[in-house]
Amino acid sequence: IAALGGEALIYPVLAIRDTDDPQPLADATAQLESYALAVFVSPNAVERALDYILAQRTWPASLPAATVGPGSAAALRERGVTDVISPVTRFDSEHLLALLPADMTGARVVVFRGQDGRPLLGDTLRARGAQVDFVPCYVRERPNGDAGVLGGAPIDAFVVTSSEGLRNLHAMLDADGRERLAAAEIFVPHARIAEAARAYGLEHLTITAPGDEGILSALTGFWDKVRHRSD
User: What is the tens place of the pLDDT at every residue in 185-206?
Assistant: First the structure.
C-alpha cells in the first residue's frame, strides 16, 4: 500500500498467547504416529504447535498435514513438513474439506487450533467416520488497542480478515470510530465476514479474492474508481 502511494494504518485486533494448559499438546506430540492426518487451522497453529513438537521430536514422515491457506502451508514447509494438503482457490474449511476423502472411517485426525473455532471442520470429519482430537495450542484475545492510532482524518478503507477480528474492531472503536467505520469501504476476503459486517450495519462492503494479492488488487481497483469519479 505504501509503495503504491497510500497510507497504511496498522491496528491489531487480535492478540495471541500460549494456552494455560500445555498437556493436550504434549499428549498429541507423544502419539503423532497414531494419526492419519494432522490439521493446522492457521499460521499461529503452525508456529505454536509445530515449534513445540519439533523441539521434542521429529515429524513422522508418514503423517500428512493439512491446512486452509498458503501462509500456513508455507510455514509448514519451512519447518520441514513437505506432505501438505491445502486449497489453492478459496482459503477456508469448506475448500480444505473438498480435498479430503469422503470416507474417513476409522481414521484418527488431530486438529491444532486456537481455544475454539468453527465447528464445521470437526463435524464434517466426524460425519465422514473420522475420530477427531482437537488440540488447543494458543489463545486469541482482544487487545487493549488505542483508537488514536487511526488518527483524525477520514479513513477510506478498512481491511478485516476474520469475523472475530471484526467483532473486536467494533468493540475497540468509540462512537466516532464506528461512524468512520460505517462510512468507509470495508474489504473482506470471505462472504462469511461480510455477513458479520452487515449485522453491524456496515453496508459498504467489497469481498476480495483470497490472500494479500486479492486484497491489494481490490484496494487498487476501488481507489482507481474513486479517483475516476473525482476527475
Answer: 999 999 999 999 999 999 999 9
